[in-house]
Amino acid sequence: MTLTAPEPSSAELAARGAARIAWIRSRMPLLAAARTEFARTRPFAGHRIGMSLHLEPKTAVLLETLEAGGAEIVATGNHGSTQDDVVAHLRGAGMTVHGRRDDTLDEHHANLAKVLDATPDILLDNGADLAAGIVARGAAARILGGTEETTSGGDRLRGELAGRIPFPVVVINDSLLKAIGENKHAVGQSVVESFMRLTNLMVPGRRFVVAGYGWCGRGVAHYLRQLGGKVAVVEVDELKAFEAALDGFRVAPMLDLADWGEVFITATGRPGVLGAEFFARVADGAVLANCGHFPWEIDVPALMAGAAEVTRLDEAIERVALPGGRHVVLLAGGRMMNLAGREPKGNSLESMDLGFLLQSLSLERVATAAGSLPAGAQPVPDDIDREIARRMLRAMGADR
Ligand code: NAI
Questions:
Q1: Whose CA is nearest to atom 20 of ligand 1?
Q2: What backbone phi and psi angles, to 5 degrees, belong to 108?
Q3: What pLDDT digit, counting tens, does each position of 242-301 carry?
Q4: Is the pLDDT of residue 23 over 70?
Q5: Where are the alpha helices (H) located in the chain, listed in sequence order?
Q6: Which atom of ligand 1 is nearest to the CA of 213?
Q7: How far is CA 12 from CA 58, 86, 95, in A?
Q8: CA nearest 234: which of 205, 206, 268, 200?
Q9: What is the pLDDT of residue 71?
């Protein structure tokens, strides 16, 4: 006889979501202050915001903040990362939220369509899915403007969608404040935390190779070293490679480090950083992990095609036996390691408080002064970056 725990009721799920959100809300002082301000100024009154963003507790606090400013919200998550207890709580609080953790890709696409069917006039996007959908529908004229959370969405807006977006889209990732506060320091901290949480292995004295010395890679390399790791960096941009060398890291091409590294972490946003040639040379027992947005930095199909045997050792750990007796350990199937495994925390509360205040003030600018912004993808206005930096310094007590 198999005993399975009964599914929690939606009331139980909502209560669990509410409790988790309460802790997070209590540690997001910037958004708390914005809620008070928005409740007075009501910048979103009469606007409907269509959203597609990871549905987790920090996002719930962002949605509450926008709602306090008068927004009507229609939301869905990103594929695979939706937290059902958070959704249950938001629905209980009267928001229209589509999606659940186990949605198939087709169901996820149907959820995106439902958000657009609700005819939002402002978009809060992650990966440019909503912007692409509105262009495909020929409905871009009814959009006032929006925001885009990621680098990858910004690339899409400036690539395949260039010239087809008649409304302003503020790309949150193009903010220097976010690059410092989130990509460098929060990703650095959470990737190291995730490596320890997923594997329970030691950092001090271990040999790490970090691919990419952009904002995320810099943070990962620095935090690993601060815990005593020996860190090498692989970087294709000579200026950043130079910076890594002067920062004291070993710098070399990936293939030269294949039998030196014990743990390889990709942070480039580009495909095939670890590919067949690397797998042919990598040392026995090496751990492979990725923190970039797309699950393509480690060429998992090539790895699996050459594998003699694949054994799942834990929820986020696979042992991949290679021909000739070597093996590698793949974390999270090559997907973002800091959102993987049991109880993933993602990036720190403070970094998301900062990042979501960037979202809130950029959306406020769109709602109240879209005409002052050019059409298409653009960075966060400099005055917003500087205003938030000042607020963050005050919140940290660092202005004293
Ligand atoms: P970035 O553009 O600052 O840095 C990427 C670096 O990788 C660049 O310096 C580039 O020259 C280098 N690079 C490109 N191809 C390479 C290769 N084949 N080998 C070695 N280096 C190579 O970008 P950023 O902000 O560091 O983001 C990196 C990725 O991380 C993106 O996919 C981004 O979406 C993602 N990201 C992940 C987060 C997380 O929580 N896991 C949070 C924020 C961003």
A1: 235
A2: -60, -45
A3: 999 999 999 999 999 999 999 999 999 999 999 999 999 999 999 999 999 889 999 999
A4: yes
A5: 10-26, 29-41, 57-68, 84-92, 105-117, 129-136, 151-158, 176-178, 187-199, 215-226, 238-246, 254-257, 276-281, 300-305, 349-369, 382-396
A6: 9
A7: 20, 11, 18
A8: 268
A9: 97
251 and 235 Cβ atoms separated by less than 8 Å: yes
In this structure, the chain runs to a length of: 400
| CATH code linked to domain 10-174+348-396 | 3.40.50.1480
Q: Which residue has the higher pLDDT, 346 or 60?
A: 60
Q: Which of 183, 189, 277, 294 to mutate to test the pocket of ligand 1 (most atoms within 8 A of CB)?
A: 183
* Domain range summary for the chain, segments of one domain joined by +: 10-174+348-396, 180-340
**Token couple for 19:** 């409790």
pTM of the entire predicted model = 0.85
d(CA 208, CA 357) in angstroms, rounded, equals 34
Q: Do domains 10-174+348-396 and 180-340 have the same CATH topology?
A: yes
Q: What is the mean pLDDT of residues 360-369?
A: 98
Interatomic CA distance for residues 140 and 131, integer angstroms:
8
From the alpha carbon of 191, which atom of ligand 1 is closest?
41
Reply yes or no on domain 180-340 having CATH 3.40.50.720.
Answer: yes
Is the per-residue pLDDT at 3 higher than 60?
Answer: no
Q: How far apart are CA 361 and CA 367, in angstroms?
A: 10
**pLDDT for position 80:** 81
What value does the mean pLDDT of the chain take? 94
Binding pocket residue ranges, ligand 1, CB within 6 Å: 150-152, 183, 187, 211-217, 234-237, 240, 267-270, 273, 291-293, 336, 338, 347
